[in-house]
Design brief:
Rossmann fold, 57% helix, alpha/beta, 5-stranded mixed sheet, Alpha-Beta Plaits, 4 domains
């Protein structure tokens, strides 16, 4: 309901205005009655009002003086409508110049009052739309700044914007938050992209609801991998210290509160602690590596990068054996790989290695494999390598401590590296381009294309990124948004219908991507380009 203040020094006029129309059915609520401008001004300083209907001529402070004071001192953004007689027209003109929305001649007629109220209602609707558009654009811009920071590709303006809009105090971490899919859940790989998007939005909303004062520290645009449907979190140590809690206790409590809202299990991967926002990319990189090897750890809700490091006393590190395994993987020597894995497990058991020893040895092996691919080809995108390792070491496919799984993974990774040494024909990339042109509105993915053209999907992603300078997912998103932009200009179809036509079931998701790529909302894009 829009709140209304009536101001007039004549009590019978105030009474008459109250009963002249059914205010409530029109979406209005009379919240204040004042007999002069000074009384009204005092109320406006302490209360929110959407509309002021005031007589022009009143003792102590006229309606015109009230309007000028409110606008000059920015006391309220309420709309003003003045009641006037025929001989007050000169005052009315001055009032309009000072921001008065409209005026009504006395005696007030029912239809004229209703007409003015409709104008106020329409302005309020436009204001709400503009505010929501502005908020979406601000969210999209901040998400873009955060992406620049976590990738290490930022400038001084990005740092300044982040310091202004985020509550940054003390050391910080990039934290990766995800919903854990239980055995009874549908396989995420078989889920529709926008079903996953709905889960992501649910997780995102829950995070922001729990930490309302830090709501802009969360982002859905972290580009962790091709099928990212999780949430990134910029954690600052002050969040825990002001609550007199340790970092772990704070994050444990945070997880429990999110799980209450999502009714799904949650886990977090906490990147390396860094001193400032300019170092955030270092924390993000360590977070990616931590996520990629989660399958080789005990299942838990909270992982810290520092726990994966091997620089601890009394840790059994079988470095020579692991180096031999890596050498075998480079040569793609099946027998040597199998022998090396068996030897590693024998050494750990023979030395009575603990679970922590096992974890750290596997961490060392996987970190070396991540860098190995880049050493073979400096054009390789490490994010794709990390994604590949993450997929192959997922908890669904690996029971902790199984040397058979590690052996299988090492053999497959050796084959994968072998593919990296080979060149791919341009025919497949041409076919991928055709697939995008013909099926961009469908749920196509690298996994689908890899299966169709009988090529490792991670390697296909590598080659695609190398040629086009962006991931396949971003390429597909750009294509969809460009197609949508053409429809927005050349048709009168509603925005939600256009979103559906180019492959987006979730209109809010579509609008967010449109703002990110085109720099404005779809509605503004249509208006601007049609006026040009």
């Amino acid at each position: 309901m829009l709140k209304v203040m009536l101001v007039d020094d004549e009590p019978y006029i105030l009474q008459g205005l109250q009963v002249l129309i059914d205010w409530e059915s029109g979406g209005f609520e009379i919240t204040a009655l004042c007999s002069n401008g000074k009384e009204a001004l005092k109320y406006l300083k302490e209360n929110h009002v959407d509309l002021v209907i005031s007589d022009i001529r009143m003792p102590e402070m006229t309606g015109l003086e009230l309007l000028e004071t409110v606008k000059k001192e920015k006391i309220s953004d309420a709309e003003f409508v003045l009641l006037t007689g025929y001989d007050d027209f000169a005052y009315t003109q001055k009032a309009i110049r000072n921001g008065c929305l409209d005026y009504i001649l006395k005696p007030v007629e029912e239809e004229e009052l209703i007409s003015v109220l409709r104008k106020v209602t329409n302005l309020n609707k436009e204001s709400i739309i503009l505010r929501k558009d502005r908020e979406k654009m601000e969210d999209a811009y901040l998400a873009r700044i955060i992406r620049h920071l976590i990738r290490g590709k930022f400038n001084e303006e990005d740092i300044e914007y982040a310091n202004k809009h985020l509550q940054l105090s003390g050391n910080m971490r990039f934290i990766y938050i995800e919903l854990v899919h239980r055995e009874t859940d549908e396989d995420p790989a078989d889920s529709d992209e926008y079903d996953m998007s709905a889960l992501q939005k649910q997780l995102f909303s829950a995070c922001r609801e729990v930490l309302k004062e830090y709501s802009n520290h969360f982002t859905m645009d972290i580009s962790f991998d091709e099928d990212n449907n999780n949430v990134g979190f910029l954690y600052c140590e002050n969040m825990a210290t002001i609550r007199d809690m340790s970092e772990k206790d704070f994050l444990d409590a945070f997880i429990k509160k999110i799980e209450v809202l999502t009714i799904k299990p949650i886990r977090m991967f906490c990147g390396e602690s860094v001193p400032d926002i300019a170092s955030l990319s270092k924390s993000f990189d360590s977070c990616r590596r931590l996520k990629s090897i989660a399958g080789f750890h005990n299942r838990k809700k909270l992982y810290f990068y520092e726990e994966t490091q091997t620089g601890h006393a009394n840790i059994v590190l079988c470095k020579n054996t692991i180096d031999d395994i890596i050498g075998s993987i480079v040569k793609n020597d099946t027998a040597m790989i199998e022998e090396g894995v068996e030897k590693l497990y024998d050494e750990l058991h023979g030395k009575e290695g603990t679970n922590r020893d096992f974890d750290l040895n596997i961490n060392y092996l996987l970190f070396q494999l991540i860098h190995l691919a880049s050493e073979l080809d400096d054009t390789v995108n490490q994010e794709e390598i990390i994604q590949y390792i993450s997929e192959q070491t997922s908890e669904d496919a690996f029971v902790r401590g199984s040397h058979q799984h590690l052996k299988k993974f090492a053999l497959e990774y050796a084959s994968y590296l072998s593919e990296l040494r080979k060149s791919i024909s341009h025919g497949i990339l041409a076919s991928v381009e055709t697939e995008v042109r013909e099926k961009y509105a469908e749920n196509i993915s690298l996994k689908y294309l890899g299966d169709k053209y009988h090529i490792n999907s991670s390697y296909l992603g590598q080659v695609f990124s190398k040629k086009y300078g962006m991931s396949f997912k971003n390429y597909l998103t750009n294509y969809r948004i460009r197609e949508a932009a053409m429809q927005i200009i050349n048709t009168d179809k509603k925005i939600n219908k256009i979103a559906e036509d180019v492959g987006y079931k979730d209109c809010d998701y579509f609008i967010r991507k449109f703002i990110e790529i085109m720099g404005c909302t779809p509605s503004k894009y249509r208006k601007t380009n049609r006026e040009a």
